[in-house]
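The instructor's notes for this session suggest beginning with a concrete chain rather than abstract definitions. Hand out the sequence below and ask the class to guess, before any prediction is shown, which regions might be ordered.
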Amino acid sequence: MSAFLNVENSLTGRRWLSPDPALERAAEALAQESALPLPIARVLASREVTAADAQGYLEPKLRDLLPNPLRLRDMAPAAERIVAAANSGQRVAIFADYDVDGGSSAALLIDWFRAQGRETTLYIPDRIDEGYGPNAPAISQLASAHDLIICVDCGTLSHDALAAAKDTDVIVLDHHQGGETLPPALAVVNPNRQDEDGSLGHLCAAGVVFLTLVQANKLLRESGRAQPDLIAMLDLVALATVADVAPLIGVNRAFVRQGLVVMARRERVGLSALSDVARLDSAPSAFHLGFLLGPRINAGGRVGRADLGALCLSTTDPRRAEALAKQLDELNRDRRAIEAAVRDEALAQVEAHLAAAPGPLAWAAGEGWHPGVVGIVAARVKEAVNLPSVVIGVERGIGKGSARSVPGVDLGRAIQRLASEGLLIKGGGHAMAAGLTVAEELIPQAMARLAELLSREMAERSGVNDLRISGLLDPQGASVEMMHLLERAGPFGQAAPAPRFAFAEQLVENVTTMGDSHLRLRFRSPGSQPVEAVAWGAMNGPLGPGMLGAKGRRFHLAGKLELSLWGGKERVRLRLDDAAEVA
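After discussion, reveal the predicted structure:
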């Protein structure tokens, strides 16, 4: 089959594929049967949604999709203990991971206890000094002054650390891959425990916390007590779901769709302040959560104070929220500079490794690389080479690394296997992201074994570097009205990609850079209005340099459409994924 628009080798080195013929037929049939516009029918057909289910998919309701919390093991004792602590005013500590999911999970619990007049202690470990997850000294210290410790987005593999709590109750609310045994805790609520059926494995930690609070509210209601407003907390669940790259399927779609509505009300002062420093000038979308707000919240844990993100999300003081948001924004700028230096070194290593021995894994390790940026650099490496990627910072003989995967390859399980085989000091995570600690002298051996573990899954991914086009569009068809129709099929994100449109033979009128790594351009076809396009991070790969001199030339352009606000008016913008000059 010939390439779409005859693009065999685009600026990013990809072959463009036509829309799947069978999917097109299904979309046309769905459009006729449901009276939906064809662009929406294409999205629904790609999700295998039938005409009978179309309306429910387009309007996901939490009441329809929210699972019974008691489907998760240990949910009953966890919710009962949390309610008992709130009712009796016991001292509660929240031990959270330092990323967006951990911070959002902590803020959910802080909000819930605060709504009942109870304050809690927040503890987030320092990434450099303490590393990921509970550690024995911290747990022992918290246990000496609290009646209950709730670990969120961590703790499932922390057997020794949680044993340090001794007589203090511990609850783990997590979603990372579980081991063969559970840590010593009153309850471990985790859809990815080995004794769970996996049907709720797509939840992030904040989703698990939300379900726990749903069950807790049920207990409060049954005892005649007032319940905190959980709907008002959905902005946190939406933020965590998108930023943690959880699949937008099932209840996650309702979390994000309804959470974005809550966020648009700007009632959470921390998120409003973060939106302002990020110059978010339109209604929030899943893209904004993942690429504008998420990195700023993560910046505290990466290169600053680990608890800044959670404090910003949970504060009720507008002035403090503004100060915290500005601090996080400054730290995010610092993070970018550190990241750029590590990224360049890591990419050079990866290119050398793959040139010497091509394989299913990209990895790099460097002395003194900041542990706060290795995760985001791993993501950049993965984007550049389209392989599962591991980036490790080494200090005093110990490597601390982060790994990012590609769809269809469970990296968390493979890294947990490495740890069980003794090649890592510790390691774990989930399918798309994981962390590890390894002795410096074992890094080459561990990476070789990891490549071996991943080889079968990678071999089954055929055509992974092809770019599938959803349909052809001209600038006149890229209207605000069409975008509003498309948004009904969202939210778009992990496991629910937005449609990718191609614009054929477009005249590029202008190209400029934005900051150090982004690209802005304007294009049109004869007789049409011009369309603006942005390519985030394009200067870090081949797309940006390839388009810099494109003014006055004709290109096929491919990307995803989005709405932006300019001068109080909505307009359509293309988020450029790829381009190919017209032959």
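Then share the key points. The mean pLDDT is 94. The chain has 20 helices and 18 strands.
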